Amino acid sequence: MKVKKLCALFLVLVLLISLGITACRREEAPEGPDDGKDVVPGQDLAEEQVLRLISSSEPPCLDPQLSTDTTSSEILNDCLEGIIRMDEEGIPKKDSGMATNWDVSEDGLVYTFHLRDAKWTDGEPVSADDFAYAWTRVLDPDTASNYAFLAYPIKNAQAYNAREITDANELGIEVVDEKTLKVTLEKPDPIFVSKLQHSTFFPSRKDLVEKYGDEYALDVGKMEWCGPFKVTEWVHEQSIVMEKNEDYWDADTVKLERVEYTINNDSNTAVNMYETEEVDYLGVPSQFIDKYKDQALMIYQAGTRYMIFNTESEFMKNEKIRQSISRGLDRVLYNETRYKGTRPSAYAFVPPGMPGTPIAKTFREANGNELFTDMQQGGEVKSEINKLFEDGLKELGKTKDGIDNKIEYSTTDSDAALQDAQVYQQMWKENLGIKVGIRQQTWKVHLSSIDNGDFDFGYMGWVGDYNDAMTFLDLFVTGGSFNRGKWSNSEYDALIEKANTTLDERERMQAMLDAEKILIDEMAIAPYSYITRLVIERDYVKGIVRLPLLVSSGKKWAYILEH
Questions:
Q1: What are the extents of the domains in the chain?
Q2: What whole-number distance in Å separates Cα of residue 483 and Cα of residue 163?
Q3: Who has the most CB within 10 Å: 114, 234, 408, 514?
Q4: How far is CA 141 from CA 157, 159, 165, 206, in A?
Q5: What's the CATH number of domain 303-533, 3.40.50.970, 3.40.640.10, 3.10.105.10, 2.60.40.10?
Q6: Could you report the per-residue pLDDT of 543-562, keeping only the tens digit for each?
Q7: Strand partners, 355
Q8: Residues 71/73/76/80 CA torsion (nearest 10 deg)
Q9: Residue 488: partners with Cβ closer than 8 Å, 6 or more residues away
Q10: Whose CA is closest to 551, among 119, 84, 169?
């Protein structure tokens, strides 16, 4: 029964995401007389246009060239304006962002972006120099941006980032004039424009970066904004307030006057705030799914939750130990127990819906849904997983004696994260015969520890940056900035390089399919669920754009009805 229920949910996920990269769209934005009151017949805008939300974590960084997480991305998307802005269908249309239009050369190598007249919040004009500086900055190896690889399609970008060339003037980034930016690519890239919605490509001001140095964008007053909103208050680990940016080029479209975030990672507190009408929107904590399931909205994201293994650590450097830890989980039981079947179990990394080939419409259809087995699937019985684990220990010259708590699972400091970890811990105790320790840290410190290699294995998740399987697979090339487990496989690297250089679409797809199989076979990571979010919101909250990609919550078109 559990398997049938999960399969049904999985098929729904495939169907919805396969329609494109749009899963949830905004309601029609209000139109009417100049007073903005009339939305639809019988419904008016509320006098107070304030949206109150909860964020489960502090944004680690609001520097667009250094930000890597979804919490920061959501705020940056609302407060800065890139070359393009995704609409509710997830389409990068012209005249949607800072570029009014752009031209592409016949060979597909040269993009010329024409920028609109716009201002930063301090009155300075937004210029082509701000984009050229930001894109050069992200590629500067001294910036150490984890997302530098997103800009590698630009001519000489990878060489400059690797210090193979040192003159930034050799990059394919040219300021023609104050409102014209010309970009030359290494080779045609049909998804280049769609990547520009990512915060990595948002503009930055050279004068401000140089003025504030390491403190840039870490507090109110240490950054200027050019998007629909601006951050006006930031009490660290407590709250963030965004207010409407009256100087935004499309300010007339923005109805919300204020967005208030309460930073809170306690589920009971969050639910109490929703019940007492202190917040308007809430991600449903797992222990409250039954209570809210009939009124909740399921949001599908093109993303995967997984465990990342530190292949340089004492135990996780062994492939058999990694495989036994992954296979010692019962993913369906975990998802049923903790999330009432609302999270589809993952047995591969690239989520459903990523494009495939003319033969197989999606990547998952082409590569299969299950690249490995776990306890629930019955692929291995407990004794076999135990033997796999013990063989791994033997290869390291170790035994189970005294091993309890020597292997540690790292996660965040929320109560939900602890409950997840305790379920895993019990499964490993039953199926491997060991007690795995649990290490909890704030989201910011957790990311820092994993970036610095200070972990055995731990929680991680990835939401696609653009609508292609490569946004998942290129994470794990040798030396990659998001290859936090330091896993390395020369065949995998060669396949990713092939996929990134061939112009044959079938050859490109096959290279990516083969690469994913290697990634999972060596268990560099252990995927365990595809990302869905169950949310509840007041019926007077309208117009929030939610896309499956990293730009998951746009408030430019949001508004509050009278209630």
A1: 303-533
A2: 20
A3: 234
A4: 11, 10, 11, 17
A5: 3.10.105.10
A6: 988 876 655 558 999 999 99
A7: 362
A8: -160
A9: 311, 478, 479
A10: 84
Q: How many helices (H) and strands (E) does the chain have?
A: 17, 18
- Classify residue 213 by burial, with Cβ atoms within 10 Å: 0-12, 13-18, 19+: exposed
Strand 50-55 versus strand 258-263 pairing type: parallel
**What's this model's pTM, rounded to 2 decimal places?**
0.77
What integer pLDDT is reported at residue 203 of this predicted model?
98
DSSP 12-34: HHHHHHHT-S-SB-PPPPP--ST
Does 34 have pLDDT greater than 70? no
Angle between helices 319-327 and 415-432 (to 10 degrees): 110
Copy the structure tokens of residue 144: 């150490």
CA distance 423 to 420: 5
| Distance, CA of 296 to CA of 533 (rounded, Å) | 10
Q: Report in angstroms the alpha-carbon separations of 355 from 367, 385, 509, 513, 528.
A: 12, 34, 10, 12, 21
